[in-house]
Design brief:
Layout lengths: L2 H17 L10 H18 L9 E4 L5 H9 L6 E5 L2 H10 L5 E4 L12 E7 L8 H14 E10 L16 H7 L10
Parallel strand pairs: 1-2, 1-4, 2-3, 4-5
Length: 190
């Protein structure tokens, strides 16, 4: 991501976090619970038949570690889990809730220290809707593609339409998602 877009993402999240009602994302909220359950069912379907303990997994934009916790519960080996989080406070929380074997970097994903072809699975959950620059989206997608091993997969979960109550995000239509990874075979989970 460009330095300017990285700074803008940080500013948008700081503004949103200061105003946000954390309960809206808690699993005690019926909408949040239903969305989480739907996402879990899709992940289980997509990963069916894979030896989860053998996968090297990276989440870009890992937040406070919730998605990585979900994968650990499904059987992913903590020693093979990595997260990248732009916001240091969220990376701190992820380190606090995840096993010590999980490696969490607080950095811009374009500056992350990861070797090419090192990941079997890369998660991008509500990342691209937070990056409003198409150029920064393309740069991040190219970086993620380089991190994937042959036969690896990207799990992309994001908004496809704009949220009229949140000007800090922009929906990413299916065709835009697919255009970020032009050499990939793209499939919808649902």
């Amino acid at each position: 991501m460009t330095q300017d877009e990285s700074r803008r993402v940080q500013e948008r999240y700081a503004r949103r976090d200061a105003a946000a009602d954390a309960r809206r994302y808690a699993l005690t909220d019926p909408y949040a619970l239903a969305a989480w359950q739907e996402r879990q069912r899709a992940i289980v379907r997509l990963l069916a038949g894979r030896d989860l303990a053998a996968l090297s997994v990276l989440e870009v934009g890992c937040g406070s570690g919730g998605n990585l916790q979900d994968l650990l519960r499904l059987g992913v080996d903590p020693a093979r889990v990595q997260g990248i989080e732009l916001l240091e406070t969220r990376a701190f929380h992820a380190r606090a809730v995840l096993p010590a074997a999980c490696r969490i970097q607080s950095t811009d994903a374009l500056h992350a220290d990861l070797p090419d072809a090192s990941q079997d699975l890369v998660l991008l959950f509500t990342v691209f809707s937070s990056i409003l620059s198409p150029g920064a989206q393309q740069a991040l997608a190219a970086r993620v593609w380089r991190w994937l091993r042959p036969g690896g997969a990207v799990l992309w979960h994001d908004f496809t339409v704009n949220n009229p109550r949140n000007p800090d995000v922009r929906g990413v239509p299916w065709r835009a998602c697919a255009s970020c990874f032009p050499r990939a075979v793209c499939r919808r989970a649902a």
